[in-house]
Amino acid sequence: MKALLHTHHVNGIKTDSRPENLHTLCMTCHGRMPGHQTMYVSPEHRVALDALRKEQAIVCE
Question: How far are the Cα atoms of 8, 12, 20, 52, 53 from residue 58, in angstroms, in the given order?
Answer without folding.
Answer: 19, 25, 23, 8, 5
